[in-house]
């Protein structure tokens, strides 16, 4: 017992789970056990990309995965923020989804993935994400990553791909499919999509979610969101909520004047921030005990 306590205190979440692999319509860890990641997405507030923030996201919120959206048109700041976030996530021992967003030409996207898979591919913490709508671009980027990193999970951020590849065509041995879930939108088709994924042995990963509609602002539909999250938890689907930022938007977790470097208090958080912190923390301690 004493040994177990010591072991737990020095071993991080990623030490414990290792590299992730898609197995049928589930995600499994290096022990072969089903794992579900739950966390938060960063946004356009650069101050939050720091180790102190990411430590709190793990220690207080029980975030097991952060998502870092990278838009190459933002230039050096996007890359600097990414490197800070990745090194912090590795230090803290949680997973990090590096998600290329925006409309970058294939050659720039390719260069980006060569760079980050060379720099980070040896860490089991890393998950790659991108969104391309042509099959050629998708194959090109998968091949680019796989030449350098044969193992870590890749999340394809486009439903067109999901619809195209009904499980007969294996794009790669370790890919998942991103979906976005906004409680204020019509989510009629979600259950059918999940059923389709289960039937076709595909793993869905909710890389963006919020209680607002997809405009990310306006009313919070918290009851609907809570139902959606319960459903995802029941289906072992990983989910990530928007957003670690202090924008004047209701899907942004922090108040405008919150200090990213401080120890956060409840008063630093908007209503949504308090909700998602408590939801993540509750789920971490309770969801697995079905
Ligand atoms: C998280 O949940 C645990 C167990 O229920 C509780 O003891 C702890 O205070 C919670 N943490 C936060 C930051 O709410
Ligand atoms: C999906 O199918 C459409 C229509 O057949 C095609 O234009 C598109 O390139 C396909 N996308 C992928 C990623 O295969
Ligand atoms: C898929 O790609 C299309 C075309 O680039 C884009 O309009 C759409 O938003 C993408 N969907 C997702 C879920 O990323
Ligand atoms: C999933 O498979 C079942 C059993 O074969 C079938 O009845 C159902 O229609 C399928 N659902 C979807 C969305 O493909
Ligand atoms: C989404 O919410 C915003 C803010 O409340 C609102 O202006 C917009 O009309 C909504 N969009 C849809 C499609 O419901
Ligand atoms: C936040 O946005 C709302 C409109 O969405 C506006 O009325 C309000 O003045 C803004 N607050 C600040 C501090 O900019």
TrEMBL record:
<dbReference type="GO" id="GO:0004553">
    <property type="term" value="F:hydrolase activity, hydrolyzing O-glycosyl compounds"/>
</dbReference>
<feature type="domain" description="Glycoside hydrolase family 5">
    <location>
        <begin position="29"/>
        <end position="247"/>
    </location>
</feature>
<dbReference type="Pfam" id="PF00150">
    <property type="entry name" value="Cellulase"/>
</dbReference>
<comment type="similarity">
    <text>Belongs to the glycosyl hydrolase 5 (cellulase A) family.</text>
</comment>
<keyword id="KW-0326">Glycosidase</keyword>
<protein>
    <submittedName>
        <fullName>Putative carbohydrate-active enzyme</fullName>
    </submittedName>
</protein>
<dbReference type="GO" id="GO:0000272">
    <property type="term" value="P:polysaccharide catabolic process"/>
</dbReference>
<feature type="signal peptide">
    <location>
        <begin position="1"/>
        <end position="16"/>
    </location>
</feature>
<dbReference type="InterPro" id="IPR001547">
    <property type="entry name" value="Glyco_hydro_5"/>
</dbReference>
<dbReference type="InterPro" id="IPR017853">
    <property type="entry name" value="GH"/>
</dbReference>
<keyword id="KW-0378">Hydrolase</keyword>
<keyword id="KW-0732">Signal</keyword>
């Amino acid at each position: 017992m004493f040994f177990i306590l010591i072991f737990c205190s020095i071993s991080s979440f990623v030490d414990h789970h290792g590299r992730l692999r898609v197995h049928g319509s589930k995600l499994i860890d290096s022990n072969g056990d089903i794992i579900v990641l739950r966390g938060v997405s960063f946004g356009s507030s650069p101050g939050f990309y720091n180790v102190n923030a990411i430590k709190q996201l793990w220690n207080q919120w029980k975030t097991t995965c952060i998502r870092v959206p990278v838009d190459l048109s933002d230039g050096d700041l996007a890359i600097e923020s990414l490197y800070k976030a990745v090194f912090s996530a590795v230090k803290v021992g949680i997973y990090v989804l590096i998600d290329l967003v925006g409309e970058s030409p294939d050659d720039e996207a390719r260069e980006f993935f060569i760079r980050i898979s060379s720099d980070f591919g040896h860490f089991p913490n890393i998950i790659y994400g991108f969104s391309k709508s042509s099959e050629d671009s998708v194959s090109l980027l998968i091949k680019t990553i796989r030449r350098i990193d044969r193992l870590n999970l890749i999340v394809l951020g486009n439903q067109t791909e999901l619809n195209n590849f009904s499980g007969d065509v294996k794009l790669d041995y370790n890919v998942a499919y991103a979906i976005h879930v906004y409680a204020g939108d019509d989510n009629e088709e979600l259950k059918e999509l999940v059923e389709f994924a289960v039937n076709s042995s595909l793993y869905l990963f909710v890389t963006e979610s919020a209680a607002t509609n997809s405009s990310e602002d306006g009313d919070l539909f918290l009851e609907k969101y809570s139902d959606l999250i319960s459903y995802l938890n029941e289906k072992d689907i990983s989910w990530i909520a928007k957003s670690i930022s202090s924008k004047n938007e209701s899907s942004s977790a922090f108040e405008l004047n919150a200090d990213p470097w401080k120890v956060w208090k409840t008063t630093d958080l908007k209503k949504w921030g308090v909700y998602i912190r408590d939801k993540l923390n509750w789920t971490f301690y309770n969801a697995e005990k079905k």
